[in-house]
Amino acid sequence: MGDTPSRKITVSNHTEPLEFAAQSSSLLETLEQANIEVPYQCREGFCGACRAKLESGEVVYNQEPLAFVRDGEVLLCCTKPLTDIKLTLI
């Protein structure tokens, strides 16, 4: 029908919000394309290295992560935004 709307990603310590395009597989991929360094290892939700604090907005997991995730945190490697979001990188 129509194009999937893009979502705005605001990252603390970065002035310009990013756009999450429908073809991106995860928040981690979007941040990498914007040359924002994020620690990661497995890219599949196993290790928890790419944790970030979700300050506002909603996300959905591509697959349920096995790594421990605290309330208010997300794993960037296996997450997509449902709404505009604000993140603080840990």
Helix content range of the residues, please?
under 10%
Give the helices and strands as they follow along the chain: EEHEEEEE
**SS summary, helix count:** 1
In CATH, what is the class?
A: Alpha Beta
Low-confidence region ranges? none
Cofactor: [2Fe-2S] cluster
Family: Belongs to the 2Fe2S plant-type ferredoxin family.
Domain 2Fe-2S ferredoxin-type: 7-90
Protein name: Ferredoxin
Entry summary:
The chain is mainly beta. Helix content is 8%, strand content 31%. The chain has a single domain, classed as Ubiquitin-like (UB roll) (Roll), CATH 3.10.20.30.
Describe the structure.
By secondary structure, the protein is mainly β. It has one domain: Beta-grasp domain (Ubiquitin-like (UB roll), Roll), CATH 3.10.20. Helices cover 8% and strands 31% of the residues. The protein contains one helix and seven strands. The strands form two sheets. A five-stranded mixed beta sheet has the order 2-1-7-3-5, covered by helices on one side. Strands 4-6 form a two-stranded antiparallel sheet. The mean pLDDT is 93.
